[in-house]
Design brief:
alpha/beta, 42% helix, 12 strands
């Protein structure tokens, strides 16, 4: 799962990044409101951890603007304030959950897991599109028409998760590169093409009518021909 941490307090941010990466989360960090909003609107994150008190634009405003632009990614808001009115303001701004500093690491991780599960949009951890079903727990891709299945590699799994979650949209190479490798990665666009080729071969191997189609000059789209 890919997380965005928007936190301007350096020590707090460093500690949270270390904790989250130990839990195998892929974490990007920003330290001001404008950068947080820009990153959120990229649409590449599974959960947003958003501090209220940030320079430039506070967390309430970031959440409001993100929701106004159509972002549906779960938001966990962090603040040193514990008053009821602040919690209400945070939730009314578009946050899905709210934690007051200081907090216990176990509780933070539990809330993140709950938001991640909510974002999968499936009770059994599977994602479906056309004639394919993706079991995110076992990284297994199955053609529902003939029952043929195949195990995906890590990057292939993340590509299929992202494309199914954004079905009906054309995803640019930049979006895919950021989602799979992260903002700070030096991965080039040819890496996207290489792993797209691997993933397409897996779809062909199981005999799926669903395919990843290249849209010239833009990126890729998941499509399904009639079965």
């Amino acid at each position: 799962m890919k997380l965005l941490l928007a936190e301007d307090e350096r020590r707090m941010a460093s500690a949270l990044i270390e904790i989250l990466r130990l839990e195998k989360y892929d974490v990007d960090h920003v330290a001001d409101g404008e950068s947080a909003l820009f990153s959120i609107e990229s649409g590449v994150y599974d959960v947003i951890i958003l501090d209220v008190m940030m320079p430039g634009m506070n967390g309430f405003e970031v959440a409001r603007r993100a929701r106004a632009s159509g972002v549906k990614t779960p938001i966990l808001m962090l603040t040193a304030k514990g008053e009821l009115d602040d919690k209400v303001t945070g939730l009314d701004s578009g946050a899905d959950d709210y934690m007051t500093k200081p907090f216990m690491t176990k509780e933070l991780l539990a809330r993140i897991r709950a938001l991640c599960r909510r974002n999968i949009n499936s009770q059994d951890g599977s994602l479906t599109f056309g004639d394919i079903s993706l079991d995110t727990g076992t990284a297994t891709l199955t053609c529902t028409y003939n029952g043929q299945s195949v195990r995906l590699g890590e990057k292939e799994l993340r590509i299929m998760e992202y494309m199914i979650a954004n079905q009906g949209q054309i995803l640019t190479r930049e979006q895919l590169a950021v989602k799979i490798w992260g903002f700070e990665s030096e991965a080039e666009y040819n890496n996207v093409e290489v792993y797209m080729s691997f993933t397409r071969k897996k779809l062909a191997f199981i005999g799926a009518k669903t395919a990843i189609k290249a849209v010239r000059g833009i990126g890729y789209e998941l499509r399904c021909e009639s079965v």
